[in-house]
Amino acid sequence: MKTAIIYASKHGCTDKCAHTLANELNNNAALINLDESTDINLDEFNTVIIGGSIHAGSMNKKIKKFTEKSIDLLNQKRTGLFICCMEEEDEKVLEQFQNAYPESLRNKAIAHGFFGGEFNFDKMNFFEKAIIKKIAKTDQNVSKINYNNIKEFAQKISV
């Protein structure tokens, strides 16, 4: 069974989570970063995992575009979906997840993942830093990646 982890990462958190997930799957997955490759042949894969980060309440545009373009084929595959976000309230995380992916894809996915997030000030522009400082009241790098959730997701996908 061949697995693809398709993702896009604005500041590096989703990239880190995708690599961690691949390691949990014993590197038995092809990592495909939409920031580097957009020509993807989904026919090669039995299982497709899609992940992206939430910024200002919205999913990464590359992930949104990919899922919209590929929805018919994705609905024929074993799928797993994950998000990276800094929200901690379950209701808000679930709302962001629901807004991130089409309903048909969410309903058939065999695994849903909420992997936490990071503020990486080294990779943010001035505007992003100002917003985070005001809203999150921090000007320091913060990591709230939930490695346990990544491990549980890998276990569900591996069944």
Would you give an account of this structure?
Strands 1, 2, 3, 4, 5 and 6 form a six-stranded mixed β-sheet that branches. Strands 7-8 form a two-stranded antiparallel sheet. The chain has helices at residues 13-24, 61-74, 90-100, 103-108, 126-135, 147-158, and strands spanning 3-7, 29-33, 47-55, 58-59, 78-84, 111-114, 118-119, 142-143. It has one domain (3-158): Flavodoxin domain (Rossmann fold, 3-Layer(aba) Sandwich), CATH 3.40.50. α1 (13-24) links the parallel β1 and β2. α1 (13-24) crosses α6 (147-158). The protein is of the alpha/beta class and 159 residues long. It starts with a strand and ends with a helix. The mean pLDDT is 85.
Concise overview:
By secondary structure, the chain is of the alpha/beta class.
Q: Given the structure, what is the number of helices?
A: 6
Query: What is the H level of CATH, i.e. the homologous superfamily?
Result: Flavodoxin domain
Helix content: 40-55%
Structural class: alpha/beta
What is the CATH class name?
Alpha Beta
How would you sum up the major sheet?
6 strands, mixed
Elements, N to C (H/E): EHEEEHEHHEEHEH
- The CATH architecture can be given as 3-Layer(aba) Sandwich
Principal-axis shape = globular
| Strand coverage percent | 15-25%
What's the alpha carbon Rg, rounded to whole Å?
A: 15 Å
CATH fold naming: Rossmann fold
Chain-averaged pLDDT: 85
The number of distinct structural domains comes to 1
The number of E-state strands comes to 8
Distance between the termini: 11 Å
Unreliably modeled segments: none
